[in-house]
Design goal:
The chain has about 375 residues and is mainly alpha-helical. Helix content is about 75%, strand content about 0%. A two-stranded antiparallel sheet has the order 1-2. Helix 5 crosses helix 9 (about 210-240). The model has no long low-confidence stretch (mean pLDDT about 85).
Length: about 375
């Protein structure tokens, strides 16, 4: 039996609101547990979730697979870093310049790439982002491949102290919530309907009189500007910007976040960014080859969880997801306690897998009307 669309949306919204509320409590949790790294980790997660939301606008709603989205993070970050190097710390200079440069650069890339489609669009965005990467590598006046250290954070004239880590975190969190709200309003407007229509059939949309290129270019510029804002926040967070942040693999990471969370869904990038970066942090504590574990997990999501995490929630599989997440964190917690003794964590892992299988079997038989 299919789940009604309104119920699917309400489940996803409820889980997303709970997740946002949990993220709002991170500074308090970091203080209670006396773990400052917790705040550092989740500040990065919130910032990259903002970047993933911007990518979802053109990838999920527009059908434009951009392998150069990380270039906008670099443009926004280097705008902050270069101005700081020359002694300009005022917020009314740094942030408008970062946003303006990101918008202009995304406009240039959009004009060059949006006249193509499919694999050609992917390759052009990849090539242009790598061009920015090598320009940053060759900018020896600003650190070259060693990167650029930001010695002083943006000055908001006493309005907010970005050196105070909880205050900076809540600024990032508020900007993430604002980006989700604006994305919701945008994709449900006439502009968003045209953008989604062009994703389905751009030739038909052009035939009935809509300037598809203009709409896509506008969406591309909006996405690039928001991603540039994320780059400015990331540079401020780390007090450092380097060409490594612009590499095409970073764009690939953001695509994975969107796919994992659910393309074309409002909260998919949020789910994807939190899941991807939390798994990265946890799995990398086990082995430096954590991608060998994460890769098959992503393949399983793509094969069996159509629509990513958001789609799984919408189809009523929240219980299975909670069982998997709970089992995973239980395994990790026991591993932290028992160290290199893998007997008990291994047994728990097998137990978690068996539990998930049992839940899935009971659910399938309950839907078919059979008694287990």
């Amino acid at each position: 039996m299919s789940v009604p669309a309104s119920l699917r949306s309400s489940v996803s919204t409820a889980v997303a609101l709970l997740l946002l509320a949990a993220l709002a409590l991170v500074p308090l949790a970091a203080e209670v547990f006396e773990d400052p790294f917790l705040l550092t980790l989740f500040t990065r997660i919130v910032i990259l979730a903002l970047a993933a939301v911007s990518l979802n606008l053109i990838l999920g709603y527009g059908g434009l697979v951009s392998f150069g989205h990380a270039a906008f993070i670099g443009v926004g970050g280097y705008s902050i870093g270069i101005l700081a190097k020359h002694g300009m710390y005022a917020a009314w200079i740094q942030w408008p310049v970062a946003l303006l440069m990101s918008a202009l650069f995304s406009l240039l890339i959009g004009l060059l790439s949006l006249r193509t489609r499919g694999i050609f669009f992917i390759m052009i965005t990849l090539a242009l982002s790598q061009l920015v990467y090598y320009l940053a590598n060759g900018a020896y006046a600003y650190g070259g491949d060693d990167g650029l250290t930001i010695l002083k954070r943006t000055d908001f004239g006493g309005l907010i102290n970005l050196s105070h880590r909880p205050s900076f975190y809540y600024l990032c969190w508020a900007l993430l919530v604002l980006s989700l709200f604006l994305t919701h309003r945008l994709v449900n407007s006439r502009f968003g309907m045209v953008l989604r229509g062009a994703k389905s059939n751009d030739r038909r949309m052009a035939a009935i009189g809509f300037p598809v290129l203009r709409y896509r270019l506008t969406a591309f510029v909006i996405a690039g500007t928001v991603c540039g804002l994320a780059g400015a926040l990331l540079a401020t967070h780390t007090d450092f910007i380097s060409p490594a942040m612009i590499h095409w693999t970073r764009s690939g990471d953001m695509i994975v976040m969107v796919v994992l969370g659910g393309m074309g869904s409002l909260f998919g990038p949020l789910f994807g960014a939190v899941s991807f970066l939390a798994l990265e942090e946890i799995l990398s504590s086990y082995t430096e080859y954590w991608k060998l574990v994460f890769g098959p997990l992503l393949v399983l999501v793509v094969l069996f969880a159509r629509g990513g995490i958001d789609g799984a929630l919408g189809r009523g599989h929240g219980g299975i997801l909670l069982a998997i997440i709970g089992g995973f964190f239980l395994l990790h917690g026991v591993h932290l306690v028992y160290g290199d003794d893998w007997a008990i964590p291994g047994a728990l892992l097998l137990g978690c897998v068996a539990l998930v299988g049992l839940v899935h079997w009971l659910r399938r038989h309950a839907q078919s009307g059979d008694k287990p």
